[in-house]
UniProtKB/TrEMBL annotation:
Disordered: region residues: 31-51, 652-677, 692-724
The UniProt record lists the keyword Nucleus: no
Domain Kinesin motor: 136-460
GO cellular component: microtubule
Protein name per Swiss-Prot or TrEMBL: Kinesin-like protein
Molecular functions (GO terms): ATP binding; microtubule binding; microtubule motor activity
UniProt keyword terms in alphabetical order: ATP-binding, Coiled coil, Microtubule, Motor protein, Nucleotide-binding
Transmembrane segments: none
Pfam families: Kinesin
Polar residues bias spans: 652-665, 692-721
Binding-site positions, ATP: G219, Q220, T221, G222, T223, G224, K225, T226
Length: 763
């Protein structure tokens, strides 16, 4: 075929020459559809405009044109979508339809979430039920194959497996008798690691549901305990496979649960705990002790807890831990474990939907061999090790026996091993025991011992396993509850206090009320008494007026004070009576002649009164207004009155003072005039006045007298300080601020002394 050349003219090029080996077919288009000329956009995008107008187009050219058109279409679509996206992003309020749909989806999501959670819990429950039906303490028996030396020695096999009897084995004794043992599962010598783990898996994964799990391998030295638990790189054991499975499940449950896995590795060697994950194992290991945490679990403070994220990491850890383990050579096993090796996997789980937290432990224990000391021919250090091993295994046996017989006390603390496993052995956890046996007739006795022990363990009826909440969380809640309790106690105390205060307040209020009532009663009584006294007074006053018409006339000129204004004798009030002046009146600076005259008058009046009123004297009172002495800070008080008791004759029921005053007035015209004019005044205004010398000032009212350099309150100005009161009451009253009774009373100087003032002792 000869070469053909097609010349294509592009817009910006002069000519493009395309060479083909052959042109199989030429597809000519009339210029419609895809063969139309491309627009300028194509040109700008590097796509050359191709026109078919000039002639028929080649298939390749046609393809280019078609593709260009497709690109154009896609570009348009892209522009449209971009615009739509822009609209959606710029519009903060999506369509109502979208909102409705979102709401519906949200509701649906909630329903599904709830259903899912229900399903999860149901799955867990059923799963746990299955495990419980199988038994929380389960025993698997594994028999290893005859090893090379046994084969060489020609040892016979004493363990028989009947295929018709599932999970059972028979031990053929030397006398051909068979002893049958039944376990939860029996692994034959040819069962590989995978088969073993397939049966183990369901229990192991319980730890992810929050249950404590303990798996331990028990058996004679060299029976394959370490092989089962650890395995080797070709045949990895339960430990590695368990962690592998845990990682797998945590990945599967990742959407619902968040898990954190931690690994610790330790050994109990000669009753000492040794951390197998410490970085520098050459250094003397620090002493580790088992402590009971506040939550009630057994913890080993200072134990390394390595967070693990993947199987490879786990394998490295297990390898380094195993390297640090105490091993030694015995006649039974070249690399015999001389300690109990414990791998602890701590699983912290959190449900991302309901935030429920769990914290559980999985113990994977490779026990030291339960060999008989005599049999394995050990001595020295090995013998000591064997003794410790046997002691701790015997303690484990005791614990299991106690659990089996359901005794109250379980001797967990008899060994470090059982103490450490306390929270994972017993009722509230799942336990799996591998009893490892040898098929060799040489180990028959040991095999029987191990199988008997395992049978006892299997016989334990443990209660239902309890799900382990995160105990640190539990402790936190416990503390919160305690604080709440304390606060409640305090609140109760405060409430009690408040109540007692309230009751006291109520009691005081009632006392106050009763006192108020008493005061009201007393006020009423007082008012009654006043009324009756006024009545009596009025009667007495009326009678006096009736007997003395002249006086009545005078009284009518100036009407008597109303009953309310009358000052009644107050018999009970004596507190205001001023005490007798301690200053003897005789020592006053008064002229002797005046004093003598005064005394004479007093004596006369006393004698007269005594003669008239002998046997009729009754204690009476006369009111004296007392004003408290003004002080700079004191508020000015209204004037008050005091009553001074006197002895007054009350014969003939006349105006009380009338008769005596009339007699008195013999000595003074002023006095007579005054009493004769108004007997009321004589009665109520028997007030104390200055001594008789100052007759001019005595004419004035006491207030008036005081207002103009009073003689009563101080020395009369006329006598330039020579005047001093002599009467004791005067002296006493001078010490108080006295205000005269508002009832004016003049000219009583002479007669008053004998009636108002207490009688002075005669000298
Ligand atoms: N099921 C098995 N299949 C193949 N080999 C096994 C099996 N069980 C044990 N072995 C082999 O037997 C030997 C002893 O096993 P292993 O060390 O695990 O015994 P042990 O019980 O841990 O002994 P010790 O108590 O002394 O540590 C190992 O070499 C191991 O590989």
């Amino acid at each position: 075929m000869e070469d053909q050349t097609v010349e294509i003219q592009l817009n910006n090029c002069d000519h493009t020459v395309l060479s083909f080996d052959s042109i199989p077919s030429l597809n000519f288009h009339s210029g419609e559809d895809h063969t139309d000329s491309l627009d300028e956009d194509n040109e700008s995008n590097g796509i050359h405009k191709v026109s078919s107008a000039q002639g028929p187009t080649l298939p390749i050219l046609q393809k280019i044109i078609n593709l260009s058109n497709k690109v154009q279409c896609l570009k348009e679509e892209h522009t449209n979508l971009s615009n739509q996206a822009k609209n959606i992003s710029t519009n903060p309020f999506p369509d109502l339809d979208i909102l409705d749909k979102l709401r519906l989806l949200g509701n649906e999501y909630e329903v599904l979430k709830k259903k899912y959670l229900d399903e999860i819990s149901e799955r867990k429950r059923l799963y746990n039920e299955v495990i419980e039906l199988k038994g929380n303490i389960r025993v698997f028996c594994r028999c290893r194959p005859l090893n090379q030396s046994e084969i060489t020695n020609g040892s016979s096999v004493v363990v028989e497996f009947d295929s018709s009897l599932e999970n059972e084995l028979q031990i053929v004794s030397a006398d051909s008798s068979k002893k049958q043992f039944k376990f939860d599962h029996v692994f034959k010598p040819d069962d590989n690691q995978e088969t073993v783990f397939a049966q183990t898996k369901p229990i192991v994964t319980s730890v992810l549901d929050g249950f404590n799990v303990c798996i331990f391998a028990y058996g004679q030295t060299g029976t394959g305990k370490t092989f089962t638990m650890e395995g080797n790189p070709e045949n990895r054991g339960v430990n590695y496979r368990t962690l592998e499975e845990l990682f797998r499940i945590t990945d599967v449950r990742g959407g619902v649960m968040r898990y954190e896995l931690f690994v610790s590795m330790l050994e109990v060697y000669n009753e000492k705990i040794r951390d197998l994950l410490v970085e520098n194992s050459n250094q003397p290991s620090k002493k580790l002790e088992i402590k009971q945490a506040a939550e009630g679990t057994q913890e080993v403070p200072g134990l390394v807890e390595a967070r693990v994220y993947g199987t490879e990491e786990v394998w490295e850890l297990l390898k380094s831990g195993n390297r640090a383990r105490s091993v030694g050579s015995t006649s039974a096993n070249e690399l015999s474990s001389r300690s109990h090796c414990l791998l602890r996997v701590t699983v912290k789980g959190e449900n991302v939907i309901n935030e429920q937290k769990t914290r559980s432990h999985l113990w994977l224990v490779d026990l030291a061999g339960s060999e008989r000391v005599g049999k394995i021919e050990v001595e020295g250090e090995r013998l000591k090790e064997s003794q410790f091993i046997n002691k701790s295994l015997s303690a484990l046996g005791d614990v299991i026996s106690a659990l089996a017989s359901k005794t109250g006390h379980i001797p967990y603390r008899n060994s470090k091993l059982t103490h450490m496993l306390q929270s994972s052995l017993g009722g509230d956890c799942k336990t799996l025991m591998f009893v490892q046996i040898s098929p060799s007739s040489a180990d028959l006795g040991e095999t029987l011992c191990s199988l008997n022990f395992a049978s006892r363990v299997r016989g334990i009826e443990s209660g239902p396993a309890r799900k382990q909440a995160d105990l640190s969380e539990l402790f936190k809640y416990k503390q919160m509850a305690e604080k709440l309790k304390h606060d409640e106690k305090e609140t109760r105390k405060l409430q009690d206090n408040l109540q007692s205060l309230q009751s006291r307040l109520v009691a005081r209020e009632s006392i106050c009320r009763s006192l108020q009532e008493k005061v009201r009663d007393l006020e009423n009584q007082l008012a009654e008494e006043r009324k009756s006294r006024i009545k009596q007074e009025n009667i007495a006053f009326g009678a006096a007026l009736f007997r003395q018409p002249t006086e009545k006339t005078q009284t009518q000129k100036k009407p008597p004070l109303g009953p309310s204004q009358l000052r009644l004798p107050l018999r009970r009030i004596t507190n205001f009576l001023p005490p007798r002046s301690p200053v003897p009146p005789r020592k006053m600076n008064i002229p002797r002649s005046t004093l003598a005259a005064t005394e004479e008058k007093e004596n006369i009046s006393k004698t007269t009164m005594a003669a008239d009123t002998k046997g009729l004297l009754k204690p009476r009172r006369i009111s004296i207004a007392v004003r408290p002495p003004p002080t700079t800070t004191q508020v000015i008080q209204p004037r008050r009155r005091v009553s001074i008791a006197t002895l007054r004759p009350e014969s003939n029921m006349t105006t009380p003072l009338h008769s005596s005053v009339s007699r008195f007035n013999n000595g003074g015209a002023l006095g007579r005039q005054s009493f004769g004019r108004d007997p009321r005044k004589a009665r109520y205004s028997r007030l104390f006045t200055p001594l008789p010398e100052s007759t001019t000032t005595s004419e004035r009212t006491p207030i008036a007298a005081r207002s103009s350099s009073s003689k009563f309150m101080g020395s009369p100005p006329t006598q330039a300080g020579s005047w001093k009161p002599r009467h004791p009451t005067v002296i006493a009253l001078q010490r108080k601020s006295l205000v005269w009774s508002p009832l004016k009373f003049r000219g009583m100087q002479n007669c008053r002394k004998s009636s108002i003032l207490p009688s002075r002792p005669t000298t």
